[in-house]
Amino acid sequence: MAMYPQEMISDHDENFQTTEIIREKILFVTKEEIPHSVAVVLENRRMEGGRLHLQAMIIVDRDSQKGILIGKQGSMIKKIRLAAQKELKEKFGCPVDLELYVRVEKNWRNKAQKIKEFGLDELNDD
Prior knowledge:
It contains 4 helices and 3 strands, in the order H-E-E-H-H-E-H. The protein is an alpha+beta fold and 126 residues long. It has one domain (14-124): 2-Layer Sandwich (GMP Synthetase, Chain A, domain 3). Strands 1-2-3 form a 3-stranded mixed sheet. Strand 1 and strand 2 form a beta hairpin. The longest helix has 18 residues, at 75-92.
């Protein structure tokens, strides 16, 4: 017996799925130079003129990780943005404009308040 209706492809909302697509592209594009201690927070989402506009904050533990993510002259963050935009366009069926920002939050994974603030607390409900 199915636990979800057949048309339901995920038990997470579209915002969560969006951040996970961006996170996946970070890990893929950086070839895992960035450890899995990266979080993505969707800060703004709006539809305007048939285009989906998204702003997302990427949170890392260290300044060195921020440098890797941005890359020389912004080359790495551009690759991440373009890869994520492509998949998000396919997912939502419309053009997507994605703005990405990187912020350092030292030891955020060890702070329950930060985990909750970034919307990651639901993942630890085991």
